């Protein structure tokens, strides 16, 4: 617990065991996700929204987050959370809400009523570092306004598309747009205590990606903030980050999709 509080990042939660397609590379099955929630409870901790964890700033809570707002979040993750008495934050791309394969506003209202947090993943899921101030405001401010109007709330949490942060000079625009929590894709734990609780400042949250390949042992290491696992993940993150800076976010994303496509064809 002294190592800080953990924020988990999920993407797809499938009805069965995940395959080896590019789309399901980061997927976990519903059964696996249920076992993860069991493990959180067995560790004497509680799964909650990222905003709650940031406000509390203690190690007794594990923030659970989902990016993209795909329909499997409603069909598979949401029921497991309710059954386990836990909550999570679901970050949605507002222009995709109601489209085939994505959650609807009515489903999001149901999830919010059950205690889930609905956060922003921007309007169209662009790379924020490639945007100027006006475009950034349209993406983050526009998404927040759309979610607030549809759900009758004040949205405070944002997840960076592709983990790509705005240029440093433009980052104050996120707080000005009304966000208090920004979920990154940087691996690590978050500070315990008032300094990590956000307050009037924007809290930038590190998250631990959970993939289908994560077995019970690895998930236990994630929950325990195992330093050796963290070192391995940060080393990988650093290497990929250097490549991303060299290629640029868009070119890097194309390379990554092509690489995963090769992996899909090679692995059984």
Which keywords apply here?
alpha/beta; 6-stranded parallel β-sheet; 3-stranded parallel β-sheet; disordered C terminus
Summarize the structure.
This protein is of the alpha/beta class. It has helices at 30-42, 50-56, 71-83, 105-113, 133-151, 172-176, 216-223, 227-247, 249-266; strands at 6-10, 13-14, 28-29, 46-48, 61-68, 89-92, 117-120, 157-159, 181-183, 203-205, 208-209.
Explain this structure.
With 268 residues, this protein is an alpha/beta fold. The protein has a single domain, classed as TIM Barrel (Alpha-Beta Barrel), CATH 3.20.20.370. The protein has nine helices and eleven strands. It is globular and about 45 Å long. The model is unreliable at 194-199 and 262-268 (pLDDT under 50).
How large is the share of residues in beta strands? 5-15%
CATH fold-level topology? TIM Barrel
- Mind telling me the C-alpha Rg? 17 Å
The number of domains: 1
Question: Percent of residues in helical segments?
Answer: 40-55%
In whole angstroms, how far apart are the ends?
38 Å
């Amino acid at each position: 617990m002294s190592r800080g509080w953990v924020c988990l990042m999920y993407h797809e939660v499938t009805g069965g065991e995940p395959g080896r397609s590019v789309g399901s590379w980061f997927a976990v099955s519903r059964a696996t996700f249920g076992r993860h929630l069991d493990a959180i409870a067995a560790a004497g901790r509680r799964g909650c929204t990222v905003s709650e964890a940031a406000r509390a700033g203690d190690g007794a809570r594990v923030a659970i987050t989902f990016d993209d707002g795909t329909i499997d979040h409603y069909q598979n993750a949401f029921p497991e959370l309710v059954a386990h008495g836990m909550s999570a934050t679901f970050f949605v791309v507002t222009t995709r809400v109601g489209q085939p394969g994505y959650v609807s506003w009515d489903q999001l209202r149901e999830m919010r009523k059950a205690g889930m947090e609905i956060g922003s993943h921007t309007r169209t899921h662009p790379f924020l570092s490639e945007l100027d101030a006006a475009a950034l405001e349209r993406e983050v401010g526009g998404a927040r306004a759309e979610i607030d109007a549809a759900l009758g709330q004040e949205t405070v949490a944002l997840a960076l598309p592709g983990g790509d942060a705005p240029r440093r000079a433009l980052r104050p625009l996120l707080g000005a747009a009304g966000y208090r929590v920004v979920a990154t894709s940087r691996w690590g734990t978050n500070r315990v205590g008032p300094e990590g609780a956000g307050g009037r400042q924007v809290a930038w949250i590190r998250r631990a990606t959970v993939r289908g390949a994560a077995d019970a042992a690895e998930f236990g290491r994630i929950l325990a903030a195992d330093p050796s696992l963290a070192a391995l993940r940060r080393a990988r993150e650093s290497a990929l980050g250097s490549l991303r800076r060299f290629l640029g976010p868009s070119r890097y994303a194309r390379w990554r999709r092509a690489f995963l496509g090769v992996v899909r064809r090679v692995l059984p």
